[in-house]
Structures are given as C-alpha cells and as structure tokens.
Amino acid sequence: MMNMRSMVTVSKMDHNSIPEVSKLFTEFDSTEIPNLIGLCRRQLFVHDDVQIHLYDFAEQADQSALAKVKGDPRMARLSMDLKPFVAPYDPETWNSPADSAAFCFYDWQDEPIENAGRTDTTVTVTRMDQASIPAVTSIFRESDSTESPRSMGTRRRQLFAYRDLCIHIQDHDGSDGADIAQKAASDIWFGKVVRDLPELADQKPTTDGHASRFYGWVAP
C-alpha cells in the first residue's frame, strides 16, 4: 500500500440521496481535477444519517495546484449541486467547508510488504467524548504493537475525531468488512481492546457502527 495522506469530512445525508450523490461525484471525478490535486482515492460512506467522506492524497501532493483549482467553476458547481442532498453536521456552527473536517489523532501503518495487493477500507462510527482521546490512543497503540492487526489483515489504522464522533478507518487486505469482524471476534488482543476502551457512547446504538461504502474512485 502506497503512503497516502488522508483527510476526512463529516456531513449529514439521507440514505435515499445515495444515487444522486454518487452520480455527481462520478461526473466530477471523470475530470482532470482529482489528478491535478494529487487525489489518489475517494470513498464515501454513510452510517444512519452521517456521511463520511474519505480523501486519500499522494504524500507529496502539489499544494499550488490545489490552490489553483479552488477557483475552478466546476468545484463551485459541485458544491451547489450537492446542497439538496448533503448538509452540515451542525448547521448552527458551520461557516465554511473547513468546519466539516475531522482531525486525525491516531495513525498506525504496518511495514510495507512487496506485492501486497489491493486493500479495502472499513469504517466504523461511534460516539466519543474528546476527553477520551488519550486513553483510546494508548489502548490502540498497545494493541497495534502486537501481531493482532497483522493477523486480521489490517495494513493501516486511523482514528479521527469530529465533534462527538470517533471515526475508525481500517485499510486491510482485500477481504470484506465481515471477514475482518469475524477475525476480530476471535482475536485475543482485539478482545482486550474492546474491554479496555472507555465508555464511548451515552447509550447503545440502535445499529452497529459499521458504515456502508456507497461510492469509490481510484486514480488511474
């Protein structure tokens, strides 16, 4: 897996808007703009009414090109076209797209291996008090120092925080999320992670925290 710099934005979106949102990004990503800004991969996930937008950039993305395309009318048109379907997570405090960006507080990546093959991505979302970040970081750092992530096929783990949410992103060997979950259920170290994590949610969620990927684009 090549080194990439990731960015995550969080918004509100109705599941019923998936076809329209997918179509808009399919059209936009067919232009030269993603390649100009060094975008390697874009993935969109939704969990309940929360949309997770994961951007993976080349580690040495051209910042001057990024500044240049910000004024491209196609960027403004995409934002306008998305408005009927995607809304700020917290409209009362939202002032600009920068207010939708989550911050990464933990990033672990396995040693590179030859002929690693393709990777898939699994995203889970849960509630988290940001005061828990040091404890959560410590627990995952301890687990990722063992063979646990490798035994589950995890190649990279990133934890992002946004308002009251924790977004857990795993890039793993080309197996589906259900396979990862099954391996995790029998892994001793991952079981310890689950036991040691502080209480992240005020109440049990009505559904599990796995977000569904509904759109994916990879640079040619």
Automatic annotation (TrEMBL):
One of its GO terms (biological process) is polyketide biosynthetic process. InterPro entries: Dimeric_a/b-barrel (IPR011008), Polyketide_synth_cyclase (IPR006765), Polyketide_synth_cyclase_sf (IPR038474). SUPFAM superfamilies: Dimeric alpha+beta barrel. This is Tetracenomycin polyketide synthesis protein TcmI. It comes from Streptomyces aurantiacus JA 4570.
